Amino acid sequence: MRDTAQPEVIVILVTILSTAPAGRGEELAAAWLHAAEQTLARDPGCKSFSVARSHDDQDQVVASEIYESKAALDAHNSSDLSKELMPGLVPLIAGQPQVYVGDLLTADGPSSSR
Q1: Strand pairing partners for 103?
Q2: Angle at Cα 73 formed by Cα 92 and Cα 52, nearest 5°?
């Protein structure tokens, strides 16, 4: 039984599928890895940040971030850190990235920050 004195804080998952210009997938992956390292080091609301390259298309890169709450994600998105990281990513992304933001679910229901 959940303690009703403590409000449940939903954990937020952000997944971004981006595609580099032809042949630049390694550069894009490196830029995402730099963003992951900086975010994990400097943003206490980010609990996880992973980067993966597609086996089928080496120019496709997925970044997956987990934030402790919607407020933490909002703070990240408006932070100086986000503004610092964008110039290293934007030139390496061809077209519009696909962005998914949702509540992280587990087998026993919504995940919460504990």
Answers
A1: 12
A2: 40
User: In this structure, which amino acid lies at residue 77?
Assistant: N
Q: What is the CATH number of the domain that holds 21?
A: 3.30.70.100
Give the range of the structural domain holding residue 100, as residue numbers without chain letter.
12-105
Nearest-angstrom CA–CA distance, 11 and 9: 6
pTM for the structure as a whole? 0.85
Instruction: Give pLDDT < 70 ranges for the chain.
Output: 1-9, 109-114
- Residue 105 has a pLDDT of 85
Number of domains composing the chain: 1
Is residue 1 included in any domain, yes or no?
no
Has residue 4 been placed in a domain?
no
CA distance 56 to 24: 15
Q: What is the DSSP letter of 12?
A: E
